[in-house]
């Protein structure tokens, strides 16, 4: 399903629960780690994880919704980082600890991951300058990956 705005989507039910609009946007620096995740094969594992950490996910979701409602990308980025930390407990990314540890060094507003995929990276409210992009490329290269830069979202 492709939408022209952010949305809260329940993939198991193939249903949009809430539309979140187009007021927020980010610049990203990200990599794709090797391998694939078979979403169907990890569904039970994920559901058990979500149940075990339900309160943490509820707080994270509340923060995310607050960020979208107020149009505050910093709040959305913080919620994305919290969600990424929670995801690391169930479907870990090999570079996660390094990426999280260097977030402030690069001035990133947050860290994001594909919860059922192999994407990991940084969220920036403002486009990183050439020097930061060079440093990010070198950092991800030191982890064995090619860095990509993308503008995401709508704002």
Keywords:
4-stranded antiparallel sheet, two-stranded antiparallel ribbon, 155 residues, alpha+beta
**Overall outline:** globular
Mean pLDDT: 92
Distance between the termini: 21 Å
Percentage of residues in strands: 15-25%
- DSSP summary: helix tally: 6
Structural class: alpha+beta
Please estimate the helix content.
40-55%
Tell me the radius of gyration: 15 Å
Biggest sheet, spatial arrangement of strands: 4-5-3-6
Write down the secondary-structure element order: EEEHHHHHEEHE
User: Biggest β-sheet, characterized?
Assistant: 4 strands, antiparallel
What's the count of strands?
6
Unreliable parts: none
Care to describe what's here?
This protein is an alpha+beta fold. It has helices at residues 39-52, 54-70, 73-88, 96-101, 103-106, 130-142, and strands at 6-10, 15-21, 25-32, 110-113, 119-124, 148-153. The chain has a four-stranded antiparallel β-sheet with strand order 4-5-3-6. Strands 1-2 form a two-stranded antiparallel sheet. Strand 1 (6-10) and strand 2 (15-21) form a beta hairpin. The protein is globular, with a radius of gyration of 15 Å. The relative contact order is 0.22.
Brief digest:
By secondary structure, the chain is α+β, with helices and mostly antiparallel strands. It has helices spanning 39-52, 54-70, 73-88, 96-101, 103-106, 130-142, and strands spanning 6-10, 15-21, 25-32, 110-113, 119-124, 148-153.
Record the SSE blueprint:
Blueprint: E1 6-10, E2 15-21, E3 25-32, H1 39-52, H2 54-70, H3 73-88, H4 96-101, H5 103-106, E4 110-113, E5 119-124, H6 130-142, E6 148-153
Antiparallel strand pairs: 1-2, 3-5, 3-6, 4-5
